[in-house]
Amino acid sequence: MHTIVFITILLLSLLMFGTIFKLTRWLHPVEILLLFLFTSYICQNMFYTTSSSYDRLSVTTEHLPFWTVRMQFGIVFAVALMWVVGIQRSSASRFIKISVIFLWMTGGILIEKGFLLVGILTSKGPSWYPSVDYFFEMTVILGTILFMESLPKWLRKDGLV
């Protein structure tokens, strides 16, 4: 089962990478690069923060689950978050913008639950509280939106855009 999930996440990662260039409608290529580095870092740290500070979620010790989780949090979530940010910059309605944010957060919870069910993630404690993950995901989204709002000013100041 781990092999199937790994291949699925690998294909999804490649597919997501292929969509990055469509973000040029809303973001400058330099912004896309910096935003990817930022979102990848912050999404991976979100997982490590929620899994390492107390008995909660952890990755099994096998290689495929290890790389599956890294691809999921480092690429799939990061690129999906870039799309959330791109839509925030678009002329979409406020309802669409808020819906996309909640879709990203709910998707993260469902992926973690799926990883728990197939044994890629394990829970050391008696239970898993998705509300903790929602809190961290809201923090990630707010931090990313603030970063995205500040980034064009910094790039213009340095003459990069």
UniProtKB/TrEMBL annotation:
The chain crosses the membrane at residues 6-23, 30-47, 67-86, 98-122, 134-151. Keywords: Membrane, Transmembrane, Transmembrane helix. This is Uncharacterized protein. The lineage of its organism: Bacteria, Bacillati, Bacillota, Bacilli, Bacillales.
